[in-house]
Structures are given as structure tokens and as C-alpha cells.
Amino acid sequence: MTGRRPLAEVLVVYALAFVGCVGFGLLQGVHGFFDENVLGFVGLLFLGLPLLVCDRIGRKPAAFGFTSRHWHRGALLALGVMLIITPLFVAGYHLWHGVHLGREPIVAWERLRHPEDGTLWWLSFVATQFIVVALPEEFLFRGYIQKRLDERWTPSWRVLGTTLGPGWLVASALFALVHLSIAPAPHRLLVFFPGLLFGWLRSRSDGIVGPLVAHALSNILIRTVASFYYLDRLL
């Protein structure tokens, strides 16, 4: 479907997602239950909205990349990309936090232990990144929003083996902006750039498994590296 309807539909869905995230953010601090489960609420919202749209417009979730078809292709592509990105990210992180800010890294597995839950916390964190964070976000932003915007603006740019268009950029920008809804801080807009990578993976692999894997592994990588420089916060 082309024309104005996909764009208007995306804007309505995004507005609902953004307002919902703001609401969940405001509930933080009101009760410990909301503090502990805010990611779960956001994840359900991000999964539920595109599923409702699918039902309304008569499309299956698979039309928006929510399918296990050729999942191995997307996963392998994401792993290959992460093998390239990981050493570059580690080097850049050290140059900024280690050299520029003078933080001496302490590379020891004990830095990854939670003070109360030990290493079991790490298993929970990894599962959360794949299931609660990456899956809903990639289904909404790369699966639904990017695909729907591609129906509004036909992709025509050849980028590293796939065809992208304005929807790729807009979806990445919306992805970055939604990160301000719960925790407004300018540096959170930097997720626009990994959003471009996830969008490329979505187009290159024709599904959300690739961006899902890259998204989760990116979050895990950041948390792992930051643990060696900081104990009290994630940068």
C-alpha cells in the first residue's frame, strides 16, 4: 500500500508508543513494582502496537519481519557484523574513558558479578536484552515502522548490498527520539547510529532476527566493557 496512509498510521502508532513510555517513566519512583518491571511494560507496548495494526489492516506479522524464516541468515550476518564492530568499539571506549577521562580499566570477571545475585544476574541480563528489549524494539522500529515507511517512500539507495530509502533514516531517528521518553539525556540520541546498522540488517536479511541479534549483543557488549571501567553505572 502506498500513499499517505502508511505515514499517518506510523505517526499514530509512534505517538502512542512515545506517550506510553513517558507514562511508564513517570510511574518510576512511585512504586518498586514499576521500577523493577518498566522494561517489561515497554516491551509489551512495543510488541502489542504493531500486532494490533496487523490485525486492523489484515496483514500477518511475518509481513513485517516477525518470522523465523531464514533466521539463520540474519543471525549469521549479525554475528559477522559484530565481529567487526566489537574491537573497534572496545578501542574507542578505551580511548575516551581510559585515556581521555583517565579511568583505569580493571579486566576481571569479578567486575561482572552482581553484589547480591552473583553471576546469575548476568544470565538474566542477557535473556532480558534478547527477549524483553531487542525483540520488541526491533519488531516495532525495524519490522513495522521501517517497512511501513518503505511503502510510503520506495527505497532506491544501494548501501552495501541492499536497497534503502528515507524510511531507514526516519525509523532510526524515531528510534533515537523514543529513548528520551523515559530518561531524557542528550547522549541517548546517539542510538541513532546503531539504529542505522539495525535498519541495514533488517533490509539485508529481510527480517528482524538480524537486527534483533545485533541489538542485543550491542547492549551486552556495552554493559560488559563498561563494567571494567565503572561499577556503579552504565555509560
Describe the fold and architecture.
- With 235 residues, the chain is mostly helical.
- It has one domain (5-227).
- α5 crosses α6.
- The longest helix has 33 residues, at 120-152.
- The chain has a two-stranded antiparallel ribbon with strand order 1-2.
- β1 (157-159) and β2 (162-164) form a beta hairpin.
- Helices cover 67% and strands 3% of the residues.
Write a concise synopsis of the structure shown.
The chain has one domain. Helices cover 67% and strands 3% of the residues. It has helices spanning 5-27, 32-57, 71-100, 120-152, 166-178, 192-205, 209-227, and strands at 157-159, 162-164.
What does the main sheet amount to? Answer: 2 strands, antiparallel
- Compute the gyration radius: what is it? 18 Å
Enumerate how many helices there are, as a single number: 7
Low-confidence stretches: none
Overall mean confidence score, pLDDT: 91
- What number of structural domains do the residues give? 1
Spatially, the strands of the biggest sheet line up as: 1-2
| Proportion of residues in helical segments | 55-70%
Strand content: under 5%
Number of strands: 2
Secondary-structure element series: HHHHEEHHH
Shape: globular
Distance between the termini: 41 Å
Briefly note the structural class of the backbone. mainly alpha
